[in-house]
Specification:
The chain has about 290 residues and is mainly alpha-helical. It is about 70% helix and about 5% strand. The chain is globular and about 60 Å long. The C terminus is likely disordered.
């Protein structure tokens, strides 16, 4: 029986970084290959771009297998080092357990809901969510792009496919699994953050682009830690979708809000609880790879 095995033994940092840069370039490049002059929020432009990045999302795991994979058979099993080789599905954090991913998705969603408890209270008191529901009911293509396609494609490409080669390279260089997780979570999101620089060519001011790179890199770090913590790419996708719904927290508005006396403290409480939960349970954050 043929089983896909991804073997990272002997992988170099240059190869891992090169692979990350390659799939990042493919993702961004596919957007411009649509060759549309329409506004990025025009339904036709959104559909073309979603189709393009969807194709890259299917291609990226296949490229991971081409770069690192080999068939698991009786003739090759002895040549595969179980310490740095895993099944293809484990490598992209998609273990075949529906129950695991459902629980992981709930954990990821609750984790980020805790972080956003202040903005959630702020938005609910201002009726922001109701307005968003009405808006996206009339702009369904934009809804699909923002909350389905973008989280799904970006997490698979920038999180799952980039993380595995980095994880196993750094695993060989570090005796501490905890240190290894942090390094992976810090290095991987750089590809995600820099990939947003392409918006500069769409007329967005440079200062805004730099802020977006910094913010998306920080988000990428937290998303990567969520994936590592739960051992599930689905958890990261759900968390990403939720964060897209929430947007960037309105700190200034919170300070000026009529209910600032409880919204502002909620901001700080949510942040403290989030950081405590994320970084004091790091002993559970090790990625559980199962050798085939």
């Amino acid at each position: 029986m043929f089983e896909a095995v991804v073997d990272f033994c002997g992988g170099s940092l240059l190869k891992a970084v090169g692979f990350g840069l390659g799939v990042s370039a493919l993702y961004v490049g596919s957007i411009y290959l649509t060759n549309t002059t329409q506004n990025r929020n025009h339904p036709s432009a959104m559909k073309k771009r979603m189709a393009a990045v969807g194709g890259v999302t299917v291609l990226s795991p296949l490229l991971l297998y081409i770069f690192y994979g080999q068939p698991s058979s009786s003739s090759l099993s002895s040549a595969v080092d179980p310490s740095c080789s895993v099944s293809f599905w484990d490598a992209i954090f998609l273990t075949p357990s529906i129950k695991h991913h459902l629980v992981a998705a709930m954990k990821g969603l609750l984790l980020f809901a805790t972080l956003f408890i202040g903005p959630i209270l702020q938005d609910l008191s201002d009726g922001v969510w109701l307005a968003q529901f009405k808006y996206f009911y009339n702009h369904r293509t934009e809804f699909v792009r923002n909350f389905v396609v973008a989280p799904l494609t970006e997490e698979i490409v920038f999180r799952a496919c980039v993380t595995a080669p980095l994880f196993f390279y750094l695993k060989e260089k570090s005796a501490s699994g905890i240190q290894n997780n942090y390094l992976v979570a810090l290095v991987g999101p750089l590809f995600f953050g820099v990939a947003h620089a392409h918006h500069y060519f769409e007329g967005i001011p440079l200062l805004h682009i730099l802020f977006q790179i910094a913010y998306t890199t920080l988000f990428g770090f937290l998303s990567a830690m969520t994936m590592i913590y739960t051992n599930s790419i689905i958890a990261a996708i759900v968390a990403h979708s939720f964060c897209n719904w929430m947007g960037f927290p309105g700190f200034v508005q919170a300070h000026r809000h009529k209910y600032s006396f409880f919204i502002v403290p909620a901001y700080f409480i949510g942040l403290i609880v989030f950081l405590f939960t994320m970084f004091t349970k790091r002993g559970h954050a090790a990625i559980t790879f199962h050798s085939s």
